[in-house]
Records
---
Amino acid sequence: MSVLVFADNSDGKFKKNAFEVTSYGKKVAEIAQSNLVVLTINANDVSELSNFGAERIIKVNDDKLKNFNAKAYADVIKQVALKEGSDIVIIDSSTDGIYLAPLVAVNLEAGYASNTVGVPNSIAPFVVKRKVFSSKAFDHTEIKTSNKVIGLSKNSFGLVDNKVNAVEEDFSPSLSDEGFKVTVTSVEKTTGKVTIADADIVVSAGRGLKGPENWGMIEELAEVLGAAVACSKPVADLGWRPHSEHVGQTGKPVASNLYIAVGISGAIQHLAGVNSSKVKVVINTDPEAPFFKAADYGIVGDAFEVVPALIEKLKEFKGNQ
Amino acid sequence: MKILVCISHVPDTTSKINFTENNTKFDINGVQFVINPHDEFVLTRAMWFKEKQGASITVINVGNVSTEPTLRKALAIGADDAIRVNAEATDGFYVAKQLAEVIKNGGYDLIMAGKESMDYNGGMVPGMTASILDFNFVNACIGIEVEGNKATVTRDIDGGKEILNTELPLVIGGQKGLVEDKDLRIPNMRGIMMARKKPLNVVEPIDFDPTTVITDFEKPTPKSNCKIIDADKVEELVDLLHNEAKVI
């Protein structure tokens, strides 16, 4: 038996997600008295994974898999799981991860627990804690099948340093044409900007900013912090900001370390979408805004005065670092 | 083109979430159920196909009789007929199995579902259904065009979007972006009247053992009080974020 982690990469480089699922897989393997196997597909340098407990690394390198392809990737994971006798498969919650995991579950006839937070409560029965109702609650889900797929919720476990000596092995999966019936024709990615999915810090603003012309200070605040820029639903609906920046229940989920909300009152749908952030700061003129009940730190004040002052103080702070 | 739109019956997004029976059951008391928001985008896009390119739309739900008003609402928006698989939707894999069974016998070209439901957020039904049937599948779909049996699909990815080519039969997990929010359909009186006469067929489920079971629920621990910092002393916030919260 083994625990198989799929450590995804972007253009050959691992992101934090990959290290988090590896750290998590190591812990699950310990609890289940099993061994950890980490699978990579077209990664440049896998050695970093050994900093997080990856003792055994299976490397697949194939030009056909250059672009992410959910079906083909799921087929590779199945082949490796069978070869390694893996009964637990762990996948991250990136857009690729949540696309892929259901296919892996069907491939392995496995029960699948998505949005899992924390290590299993118990191994027999196999019970994990999941986020449900858009992070308004948790459930405990028992996976009853002998094979199990876990989708690990982003930023819910963190990275655990655990330097080991890794054994690397190359594996050539058999890839049939059947796996490539959905093909990528073009990719548009914003470059040079921190994405909401990857960001440790997210700066978000709402209707309190009065108009799209006032987003300059939000972008500057984000730049000082190395943060991604986001917005509330009304702002996206008004066309002030692109839909891709909308965070909340029907928008993008946020699970950053720090979330700063400027001029966002905190509708229940918005709070649900950002609930998984570790520390929340609210800046709002209305002391009765619901966000103050959900936040860790708050400033009651005019964003047009508070934000520029905050940018100035943060610049001083960064300068002293 | 025959389109099947999968409809989840979920609590309204403004609902307060509570549990009963020793935290083992979701408390539906005072909760209003609606069409899953992602499914509304999907259904509206399906209506576009119906009106502009000619398509029939069947809506489907796996659930008990209490979900029928939600299916009727989808009929009032403009779907032609509805199917309810008469079973409790306890597990995503179970739901996918039931959908796959209906699809296998129904000859659908395009299966459109929301990428996840707002209750259990499994996000697995569209992908599992496609995988069971060996149909093509695109998740997080924010655009779709169909010509003949060819489909061009836009997928939301971290930090951008991706354009994909594929063929029918196809399953998509759709979301906000498929249509503009302002174009989302709401039922009008005529639609509601017509919906009463449209067929809603109840079919019995096939046997499949659930792969997962929810044992109980838990609510997040309430936040301790928010620390208020004076608007004239933002340097205190910087200090707290660095020394206390350790996030900068």
Note: The first strand of chain B starts at residue 2 and ends at 6.
---
Amino acid sequence: MQFCSLIKAAWTVFRKDLRCEFRTPLNFSILMIFAVTVLMVISFAVGGIALDPTLLAALLWVMLFFTAMTGVARAYVQEEETGTALVLRLAADSAAIYIGKVLYSFVILVGVAIVVVPLYLVLFSVAPAMPLALAATVVLGCLGIAVTGTTFSAIVAQVTTQGSLMTVLSFPVMLPLLWIAISSTSTSFVGSNLVALAPDLAFMFFYSGMTFVASLVLVEYL
Amino acid sequence: MIWKYAMGLFMAAVIIASFLLVPPTQGLGDMGRIIVYHVPTAWVAVLAYLMSMVHSVAFLRTGDMLRDRKAAIAAGLGTLFCILATVTGAIWARGAWGMFWNWDPRQTSVFLLLMLYVAYFALRASVQDPDRRAKLAAVYAIFAFLTVPFLVFVVPRVYPTLHPNLINVTERRYEMDSIIRLVFLSSVVAFTGLYLWMFDLRLRAENLLDQLERERGN
Amino acid sequence: MAVRVVCHDLTKHFPPRTLFRGVSVTVEPHSLFAVTGRNGAGKTTLLKIIAGLVPSSCGVVQIADGGRILSLGEIRQTIGMVAPDLALYDALSGLENLAFFAEVRGVAAAREQIAELLELVGLTKRRHDLVATYSSGMKQRLQYAHALLHTPSILILDEPTSNLDSAGAQVVYGIMQRQRQHGSVVYATNDAREVALADAILQLD
């Protein structure tokens, strides 16, 4: 019963966030423009040089990481800036808010990835050997970034001088995830053995799962 | 007071012994002596970070500000010893591998560990309200600490390590002869004592600062 | 329900200053409790500590129903708050805001309750407009509707009538008197008329 009401409240928060987002789709557009700009800048700088698959994969994740840092950070920071954070905390369980915000960040990140990844493949003329593996990697990577990023967003939102604190806090914690995502992405470009990817995908899943559980416990104290 | 003098003498004895009793290592020459400093500083760094984590958990459970202060001090000392371990490690790497820094897994992990705690202090510096600062820092410290196992799992997969192991796990024996082992273990004790002493000094200083601030506030 | 707020020895430091020290008060059921004091004395912070939104430096707040101390989840259902630094969602309409909070809190018979409250604060006509288009007084009226949504036992009001016209202020005084029937009101004010309504007064200095 309690679990049901938690999920229901989380879903309500998620729907509210999406609705606010689509009323003023400014955030999402800016995020998309940011990601595309980074992509174009890299593409322009690289020119026509053929890149090593690992380097290509690293570029993709660097771009997704920084896009996430500008976007996911908003999940809680925006509530704090508009003064709605306190009202929301009075109304809902912190775990429910957290789950709702993770869902929201995940949807936004996947939304950006759906546009940016194909564009990236075209610009760098990459034909992934295992497109489904690439898709799975991107989705799981976005999940991990959404889960941890949302936690740090909750921390950063309460900080007086935010600056680039979000990136500083997230980078060392997310690095294991990014590393595996990069290795998995580059395998999906050139490899042919799907089984070899399984541990990487499993790692990303467990990383997200563990940080999710830890966050659920810790957000109570924020 | 007396044990501080004893500590000083003991530390001095360990330092002298590291030069007189420990023989030059095969292949590394005098460079091998650094093990007497490198490993204990790394051990103290881990111990201090662990203590910081324990105090952070205790803070969230009790809300006792003294716990927050202890967590911050332990994290600060952990970072100091971590830097010492990194520097001594780099000096050793220069002798053994020919380069100060080559992103060996151990070096990579230690670098990330330092970044985690730099971020911890960046977070602390960004919050003005001390009660809120304590809360946020504790949550971050616990969260960050929980991701360290992933680091340990991932990093060796990215690069194979060349770092020597002191304990040969398969044969269950120490790869050291008895005299080096004695000096080495004494050094571990001495550095742990040094850590406890420094912790005590910092805690007393912070308590005094806090008291001063309160008196000034009234 | 007889919900009581007990503050034990509350202290809040904002280094290098101490806002207040050793505040111990009890807010009795069926009472209006006023907190007064010059600007910067910590009225808002005290209210936020009671609501559980800001940690205190020392001391605890206990909210008890009879002899039983309420859990965090129960406290959330017990408190309604209106304050100048709280806000509702600009991108949603007044009605959507109330519907969202009713759903998050799991309020039963939300539709009737919302309609009634909108009528009470006089926003029925503008209920489909975005909050962004509201005046500051209307936003505050909507906040009252939001704070009463789950019929809280404790109403916490920071400067209850700061943005309201005299008609709005009358609505608020009505709400406060009605609230006294089944719970209590803790409010921070420096307005002499509002202080005069109180059953108990805490002066912060």
Note: The two ends of chain C are 33 Å apart (CA to CA).
